[in-house]
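During the second year of the project, the team shifted from modelling isolated chains to modelling whole assemblies. The rationale, set out in the original proposal, was that interfaces cannot be judged from single-chain predictions alone. As a representative example for this report, we include one of the complexes processed in the last quarter. Its constituent sequences, exactly as entered into the pipeline, are reproduced here:
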Amino acid sequence: MADPQAPSSAVTAIEAVEAGLAAQGYIASRQIATAVYLSQAIDKPILVEGPAGVGKTELAKAIAAWRGLKMIRLQCYEGLDEAKALYEWKYAKQLLYTQILKDKLGEVLGGAQTLHDALGQLHDFGDVFFSKEFVEPRPLLQALLEPEGCVLLIDEIDKSDAEFESLLLEILSDFQVTIPELGSIAAAKPPTVILTSNSERNLGDALKRRCLHLHIGFPEQRLEERIVESRVPGISQTLRRQLIAFIHDIRTLDLKKQPSVSETIDWARVLVLLQAAELGHEVVKDTLNVLLKYESDIEVALPQVTTFVAKAQRQNIFG
Amino acid sequence: MQENLHRFFRAARGAGVHVSPAESIDAMRAVASVGFADRTVLRDSLLLTLAKSEDEKKALGACFDLFFAHVDPTQSEAHDEAQQDAAQNATEGAPQTAQNAGEQTNAELGPLAQMLLAQNTADISAAIANASSAVGLSEIRYFTQRGLFSSRMLEAMGIQRLRDDLDALADSNPAQAERLQAGLDGLRDTVRDAVAQALALYGREETENLRHEILRNAQLSRIEPRQVAEMRALIRQIARRLRERYSKPRKRQRRGHLDVRRTLRRNAAWGSVPFLTAWKRRHRDRPRIVALCDVSGSVARVSDFFLLLIHSLHDVVSDVRSFAFSGHLIEVSEILEQKSAEEAMAEIMDKVGFGSSDYGSSLVDFEKQFMAAVTPQTTVIVLGDARSNKLDPRADILKAISERAKRVVWLNPEGRMTWGWGDSEMPRYQTFCNVARPCATAQQLERAVSDIVSAYQ
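Output from the structure prediction step:
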């Protein structure tokens, strides 16, 4: 079963993934890189879970950019159904064509003596109006039809209904869909599928079983520094280090919504804009609303700001 | 190595991670493609393919660390071969090693004795590994089986022969007998450790299930303080199960048949030509619950768990208002929403707890202040033993409540046998309750709450 060549090359392949994503500005932890590599190696979708703003969606974008593939995105919401996600019949076109072809139909059917004969002849045409030309592909079907393969991002799957999950099962395990009138349509080239979830509701076991399960939490200090470095190039090293240390302290507080990576990046941008050379008490107080999105959270954090800023500044001396 | 992976899957199941055959196949494929060279990569791959939630990831990570505590993945292939060689040595080549080991070794000693005297640790650990597979150590499930498996393993390693050797040596060569005895003690320890590790790996699930089963049926009022935390975890688990069962089909409301009456009424302006259609909807109310909990004396513990359960059902229950009473009654919904379970209960106890209960005046308090909370959609749950210390029970207030409410459910931590005995006013209250049921264990609590919620489906 094991390919003797594989193990030695696996680590280099994982490192290549890491480097490839980094070139797109996505700094991946080893675990993320392993997941991306494995999804390729054993043809499995990745289910990414984690708090909002840690870069779940960004991961898909980065993969698409790195591989030079098209990214097809399906945003899930309550009430999303087959017609919007998979395919739809072009009713208007069907109607228009029957109108245009009316004369032709009359000609063809003209020879029929009885209604029964006409019906028989109609059957001979087969399902002209239910052929591929009349199918309007929606994101899921588009992804399968893409000849070069693509990255299919199914975003916030937890927001969709439980029924929609069952709809996905066939695509996720076999990379094909079944349209009753046309039969099964298999993928030209299996797409790389990324599903993201904020754990708003528990996903079904059947769905989870078909995926690699990747949990992205808040990154470690070192990693987050690298992320900020790649995303906000103008920031000085001193400020960067203090900022990250401060945010890691903030995350230890009991908050309604912890600041995640996207907030870190926003904050770093704001600080650069304000031309802050160092993390100061006043600057932090003024810009805390970039980091914390709830009034109650800001109230919790405010008394701690002085301590955390001092701590972050010390960090810089020894770090 | 496949064998090792299979054992790891079994250990993972022991750690509470659900590993289906399909998942194990995926894991095998993943491992085949990443290899064993890099331990962190191997760990990541197994976590990615097997664990399906954050909790499972933690459990599986711990399990991985324990499992590969001394099996180094890089060397395990070589290790396996070494084991086989060692096993052969132990059986066939024993006389040779004995001769090599030294002149004073008696050739009549059994292989185990010779191994111990030669202090060949590699051989000994190989022998332990063989013995553990011979007795099926990975089948171990309960901590009570430790002794059994230890002795079986020692037996499989030939301790009988060793004892004979010891007896023989005690006369002929006391010094050597002493060394052998020391070796034997060391061996016992090693075997015990091996069994303990196997138990930690493979037995956790069964042990936990057994403990949970016992806990579910234990009297809530009598559980020991050290079990409280575990009980809370169990209650949360129950809440999760109830949530999963009852929070699902929300969509049904949107489908339906034409509502002829409403359509005609709506289109009256156009002579009832149906321009605007109205559809029948099946209304499915979310449960609204008003809970009155006795927090005096022995009932307090049960109330504690009950409140925890009710307040963990956010998804299922749209509106919960809880009240605690013993001598008088206060509303505790906010305390429960804002604080952790432990703090909230402490605060509630501080305010009203541990008094002697007076159902009459507590009901009066409720009638005066909170009667408006009871609507025709509300289920009123009273949790208490109905022991009112011979004071006026004011059953008339409960009657008024039951007339306003959808249902009144009385949960009594005492068994039915004692209802009405002593100062219990249960029979009087029971008249005005739609349901009155005993509720002393976690299991009964689950059933009671499940029935209440399903009445709204």
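Residues 150 and 191 of chain A are 5 Å apart (CA to CA). The longest helix of chain A spans residues 6-23.
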